[in-house]
Amino acid sequence: MSSDTSLPHGTSPHGTSPRSASGDGFPARGSASHRPSLAEALSTGAVVLDGGMSNQLESAGHDLSDELWSARLLAERPEAITEAHLAYFEAGANVAITSSYQATFEGFAKRGIDRQEAARLLTLSVELAQEAARQARDKGVRQPLWVAASMGPYGAMLADGSEYRGRYGLTVDELERFHRPRLEVLAAAGPDVLALETVPDAEEAEALLRAVRGLGVPAWLSYSIAGDRTRAGQPLEEAFAPAAEADAVIAVGVNCCAPEDVEGAVATAARVTGKPVVVYPNSGEAWDAEARAWNGRSTFAPEQVLAWRDSGARLIGGCCRVGPDAVASIARTLSAS
């Protein structure tokens, strides 16, 4: 993920707006042609997401064999995270998903990091993506750029695989209390959107939808699925339905799933919610937890994104094992059609 996972799994966004006098890469905000909000961009066409944060960091030589996964680098090598975001922006991504997927107060506490420092690191995750956007503009990247603050499920903090099962034995109220403080910190950091991602269970989605109310930052809700059901086994029709009435939610969809499961899920999400759909599947390779290695071959093909777009997907990218080259192919495929 940008989310870190362990199972298989306008606004033309590539327009060439002239650089503004302020050097930020976009027309001045006071003009009628200022950079649109992400919601506005989704209403006019497809927007390109980045790919897997963890595999981009690993390919740069960073060891992520840790319960905090890429979130560990927030404290130890923050510049590496900026470099990873920058690689995706330069590949053609419009949206960077922050490295906060497994960054929680509870997870940091296990490492002796107190609450104040944990809040600083959560804020830093947004600032690093924003810095990557500034660097990208300085290097001549012309497409509109946005930052999505990643919010992983409760199970990501446990680091025991339960993020792909759900059913943690907690109530919706307990899950809301777990998620809300982290969401408040991330929202205060000023991202363009909150990415409620890799959600395995409709009950946790209900908690997250409650937790984002009143924060003043839009969100997308993205389930991890197997076939036509959530990882916890709920039919997608039921799982997507609450998002239809959630004013804060600007897109709903799936991520961290097999590419072949995407098209049906996109159609269901669009039909049930009437909202733009977000999709970013894995490469199709499978994770061997004992060997801690990926097996099999990639089934992710950039041309698949056209079918997803035609079914209603408007926010399109990749998750685990989908790197900058694949994101560049997605961007080219969408802009050429």
Automatic annotation (TrEMBL):
<keyword id="KW-0862">Zinc</keyword>
<dbReference type="GO" id="GO:0008168">
    <property type="term" value="F:methyltransferase activity"/>
</dbReference>
<feature type="binding site">
    <location>
        <position position="319"/>
    </location>
    <ligand>
        <name>Zn(2+)</name>
    </ligand>
</feature>
<feature type="region of interest" description="Disordered">
    <location>
        <begin position="1"/>
        <end position="36"/>
    </location>
</feature>
<keyword id="KW-0489">Methyltransferase</keyword>
<dbReference type="InterPro" id="IPR003726">
    <property type="entry name" value="HCY_dom"/>
</dbReference>
<feature type="binding site">
    <location>
        <position position="256"/>
    </location>
    <ligand>
        <name>Zn(2+)</name>
    </ligand>
</feature>
<dbReference type="InterPro" id="IPR017226">
    <property type="entry name" value="BHMT-like"/>
</dbReference>
<dbReference type="Pfam" id="PF02574">
    <property type="entry name" value="S-methyl_trans"/>
</dbReference>
<dbReference type="InterPro" id="IPR051486">
    <property type="entry name" value="Hcy_S-methyltransferase"/>
</dbReference>
<protein>
    <submittedName>
        <fullName>Homocysteine S-methyltransferase</fullName>
        <ecNumber>2.1.1.10</ecNumber>
    </submittedName>
</protein>
<keyword id="KW-0479">Metal-binding</keyword>
<feature type="domain" description="Hcy-binding">
    <location>
        <begin position="35"/>
        <end position="334"/>
    </location>
</feature>
<feature type="binding site">
    <location>
        <position position="320"/>
    </location>
    <ligand>
        <name>Zn(2+)</name>
    </ligand>
</feature>
<feature type="compositionally biased region" description="Polar residues">
    <location>
        <begin position="1"/>
        <end position="20"/>
    </location>
</feature>
<dbReference type="InterPro" id="IPR036589">
    <property type="entry name" value="HCY_dom_sf"/>
</dbReference>
<keyword id="KW-0808">Transferase</keyword>
<dbReference type="GO" id="GO:0032259">
    <property type="term" value="P:methylation"/>
</dbReference>
